[in-house]
Amino acid sequence: MEHPPIHSLMRFMKTIMSPVHEEQMLQLILQTAMDSIPAAEAGFLFLHDPLINKLIIQATVGYLPAVMTMTRLSSGEGISGKVFAERMPIRINNPLDLQSAMDNMSAFNYKYYVESSTQGEIPCCCIAVPLLSDGRCIGVVTLDNFTDAQALTEHDLESLQIYCDLATMAIEHRRLFRQVQEQNHELFLTHDALRQEHERLQVTMDFHNQINNLAAKGYGTPEILSALYRNVKMPIAVFDLLLTPMGYLPAEVKPHLPDQFLQHPAMQWVQRSKKWQRIVLEEDAAQSIIVTPIVGTDRLLGYLCAWTGNQEFMSTNKMIFEYSATVLALDWVKKEAVQQSQMRAKDAFFESILSGEMNMSLQEQARVLGFEQEDHYAVMLMQPLQGSARHSFESIMSQLHIHYLLVERHHHTIIIVNIAGNLDKEERQSQFQLLLRELRRDRQLLSGIGRLYQGLDKVSRSYKDAEQCMQLLLKEGNQQRLIYFGDLGVIRFFMQQSYEELEEYLNDVLEPIIQYDQQKKANLMITLVSFVKYDRNLKNTTQSLRIHHNTLYYRLGRIQELLGYSFDHGDEWFNVRMACQIYLYLYED
């Protein structure tokens, strides 16, 4: 084999090893090879693309550049495809043989080949050499001559083989170098991703430890929110199912949710899927709310919300929010379970105490609830305490520092009020009277209150007092807002008698007057009741009835005539007063 001149090889080596971009290097390889083979008028440099298994033109001389982007040769297709498939160099110096070798090209590739030639349609001769590396063919270099079928000689073919061997080494070296660069870049990206993931995991683990410590120490929603706010540094809030805020930070920024927020499609999705969701605010597209559902064992409990811009919501923050929501759910479920347990214990305690039962076990339960045997107790019955009425009652009890126990029963709220046993009688009565006064001032509260007794075993007696007061309140049609059993006077004795017994006593004393009113359509009974009410004061009675004093004298005379005795007699007057009280108790609306 006759080798190319040494200066040609040196020039070729210098060219292919020059620090240029890969595309420029491939173009230089082809151009330098053609410069070293003067008979070459045009040429291609193909490289094999393993992804599509096609030969792709990477460099051309003497052909329009468009052919590079359009031509894709299969293995065995055309002259270059044949050399690639057989891995053997080829020299064709007969135009007919050359045309025959190109007959198997696809119409598309052939069309672009012919249209892109700047010398003529079909070359007169060509040489093509495979680029071989470790038994693999990585491409093909093809050189063409359009003027003389004998222009490209065997010597040119041998020279091209030497150039192609050197070019193959340069191409593979460049590929390996690029591969190392890509691997190094991938390693850098992987290392950076691992570093960031480690940092995120560290942040997450630190937050988990903070929250776990708070939970272990019995802290609840406020402390969990504080820990979350320190980590995410964005406005946050916790809402119940009806979007009532249960806590938020920072304290000076009150959380605002759009109107009809629960009906927002994204919120509907959160409720169905129980997964977090970013909701872009319609009134401010630059702001969004991250909603993380707080989910109990089998139900939705509330929402953890964060106000943020439309920047990326980091996966670390997502994990922190989800973990916070989980711990909040556990805290709420635990407190709910404790409350239910306490309610059951209180209910059982109430049942036993109100029935008058007392034993060592109940005394222990009472002590746990803050009640001592030597303390004084009164029972209050109220209409169900809801909304502002409950808040008002709790405020009164808090201001007076009075300990109490409350349970809901059907249509009433039952409250056991506890006055400390270490107070003297005057202090105890003063505190209790102050409570009654504050309750009377509040027009939202409807209360029946039993007397104050010492000892838990007397609570049942106060409960019976309160029941009678509540019955009287309902009987009077809520004319009063509070009745204390100790203020009832003689009425408490009426309440212990049957309706029949009271009516019998009333008829024994005042039946003539009652019958007279019924027969004559008179007002003697009303006159007598008013006369008794004002303790026989004539002026006050006439003013109350709005009648002339002569009319009053006449009616009183008629009443005494019907009764058959004068009001000057003490026993008769006592019976009249008592009967009038019974009349008011039985019939007054």
From TrEMBL:
Record protein name field: GAF domain-containing protein
Annotated Pfam families: GAF_2, GGDEF_2, HTH_30
SUPFAM superfamilies (UniProt xref): GAF domain-like
Membership in a protein family: Belongs to the CdaR family.
Top-rank taxon: Bacteria
InterPro entries: CdaR-like_regulators, CdaR_GGDEF, GAF, GAF-like_dom_sf, PucR_C-HTH_dom, PucR_C-HTH_sf
Domain GAF intervals: 25-181
Stored Gene3D superfamilies: 3.30.450.40, PucR C-terminal helix-turn-helix domain
